[in-house]
Amino acid sequence: MKLRFATALETLPPYPLQDLPAIKREMRARGEDLIDLGAGDADLPPPPAAVEALKRAVDDPANSRYAFQLGLPAYREEIARYMEERFGVTVDPFEETALLVGSKDAVYHLPIVLLDPGDVVIMPDPGYASYFGGTHMAGGAAYQVPLRPENDFLIRPEDIPADVARAAKLIYLNYPNNPTAAEASREYLGEMVAFCRDNSIVLCYDNAYAEMAFDGYVPPSILEIDGAREVAIELHSMSKTYNMTGWRTGWAVGRRELIGALVRVKTFSDTGVPFTIQHAATAALRSREEWLPGNLEIFRRRRDAAIEGLQAAGYDIEAPRSTMYLWVPVPGGADSAGYARRLLTEQAVAVVPGIALGQGGEGFVRLALTLSEERIREAAERMGRVT
Ligand SMILES: Cc1ncc(COP(=O)(O)O)c(C=O)c1O
Could you identify which of 87, 128, 137, 203 might form a hypothetical disulfide with 221, taking C-beta atoms 3.0 to 4.6 angstroms apart as the criterion? Predict the structure, then answer.
């Protein structure tokens, strides 16, 4: 039988760098000393409180049952407490909160919630690949706005033509930003909320890096912004903040009809985040104040090591105040894929070429601060040999 796949799937571009794990495995098998700064997946352990809670939870057979969308009330209440204490934002833990199988869960499913075929979604380019993937598979049309240094890596209302604004139902904004490490001011967020209200566009604020900030910078929640509660849904993740990428949990907060609709779709696609993981995430959130500063200090030192090393190697780069990424201009201009390939094959350093994250990412590569300071210094030195 000839398989007949959906046209949307046939035309879906490959997920960025999906062949890279195999290439890296081969290099390691050949005995090469690979320094992998590719994926945003740190080498550090989760909070001990989370590990302990997970171990305890596994012993209770009740935690082996379906969690359903409701999940663990204590996790929901801890999320609501966090939103209140950290951002001064009050959310109902049941009506205005959805538990997610990682924030990617909502990124991918929101287009199904909102789009009819041909509806437009505005998204950053470069940007997290699932903004496009979810939109495309839901039959939507992506309008990708280039994030460039000259616009401070922001999507501004003036970058969006009036007909696109009229046709759009959803916009993704992500600050602190992957991959550019850009941040968004409250004033800017206020402009975008007004733009979304004026054009009846849902604003999905992807706040996966809300806690990954340094030098006194405290990223806001979109829900702190006047008027945002009418238009916004905000995504949070346990992945990056707590070194729990593989544990797969996060949450969405925002306007209750949006949360309700997302949960309705998810009812058909997952049957809840495992209770064991919810117990662990609850414990991690409770340990935030005592555990988080030490973890951030590790990333800050890594960032400083990378910046020092890259500047010494002749790179034109300044220290960003947020995320685990450095967005490094390719020496001499454009071809990010060629440059990343040379780094990999000549120096055994893996980075993400900007072009893999969208056309707008051309001219840059992304480094993730996912290894020790020593390895990062070594990587920067090696990068100095490919200029
Ligand atoms: C901008 C952004 N959003 C969402 C995610 C998804 O994270 P998770 O599903 O692990 O919560 C990532 C992961 O890399 C990301 O970089």
Answer: 87
Report whether 109 contacts 265 (CB < 8 A): yes
Residue 221 falls in which region: left (phi positive, over 0), alpha (psi -120 to 50) or beta = beta
* Distance from the alpha carbon of residue 178 to the mean position of ligand 1, in angstroms: 9
Residue at token pair 């949990």: 249
Q: Which CATH homologous superfamily contains domain 7-45+290-383? A: Aspartate Aminotransferase, domain 1 (3.90.1150.10)
177 lines ligand 1 (CB under 6 A): no
CA distance 251 to 282: 12
The one-letter amino acid code at 225 reads I
pTM over 0.70: yes
For residue 317, give the nearest of 155, 125, 181 by alpha carbon: 181
The single-letter DSSP state of residue 367 is E
- Note down pLDDT in tens along the chain; length 387 residues: 999 999 999 999 877 666 777 888 888 888 889 999 988 888 899 999 999 999 999 999 999 999 999 999 999 999 999 999 999 999 999 999 999 999 999 999 999 999 999 999 999 999 999 999 999 999 999 999 999 999 999 999 999 999 999 999 999 999 999 999 999 999 999 999 999 999 999 999 999 999 999 999 999 999 999 999 999 999 999 999 999 999 999 999 999 999 999 999 999 999 999 999 999 999 999 999 999 999 999 999 999 999 999 999 989 899 999 999 999 999 887 788 889 888 998 999 999 999 999 999 999 999 999 999 999 999 999 999 887
- Please indicate whether residue 40, judged by its CB atom, sits closer than 6 Å to ligand 1: yes
User: What is the CA 280 to chain-centroid distance, rounded?
Assistant: 21
Start-to-end CA distance of the chain, whole Å, equals: 52
CATH topology of domain 48-288: Aspartate Aminotransferase; domain 2 (3.40.640)
Q: Is the CB of 102 under 6 A from ligand 1?
A: yes
Q: Extract the tokens encoding 280.
A: 């662990």
31/21 Cα distance (integer angstroms):
15
